[in-house]
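Every protein is a chain of amino acids, and every chain bends into a shape of its own. The protein below has been through that process, and both of its lines are reproduced in full.
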Amino acid sequence: MAEPALQTPLAASDAALAALGPLLDRLEEILADVEGLDEQVRDRVFELLDGVDAVHRLAVTRLAAVLGEDVPALRRTDPAVDWLFEAYGVGVDDLDAASAALDQVRPYVHGHGGEVEVLAVQQGVVRVRLSGACSGCTSAAETLRFGVEEALRENLPGFVAMDVAPDEGAAPHPPPTQVLLQIMSGPPDAG
């Protein structure tokens, strides 16, 4: 009777990574289900996931630091390790990655005469500054929350929070373009 062929570590790694595909797909389905939960429950689930992610990120980045110069070779030879390090941003310049994550919102900001700059990234907290026409703009908070923060959350591995550097010299002013909605105190006159 012939002995079963032993898998090489790389072949075993490839097989394990391929087996992750259905699991990752299922996790995406569950995440979509979580989005539909009651807000309080959803927030608790995301808090739990963020905590688990933070623990894993710390362990993976420390492991990479211990491996040091061996990390690039390990990434090239083991797809599962490469996937894990990619998911946690190991070996990525955080400042460059955060700046690249904002590329999708820059045309909007530039179109309004402004600029968004990444000043620092430390342990997932990204410090940004709005300048130009955005500095002091009364709509800047919405731009930050619904544009800049969302782009960082979706495109920067390990994003935890955004910290906005104040611009003390900026005087408050309305957006430089027409406002699409005007809030009125009562119904318009029917005359």
Observations:
- The helical segments are 9-35, 39-67, 71-77, 79-87, 94-101, 106-111, 140-155.
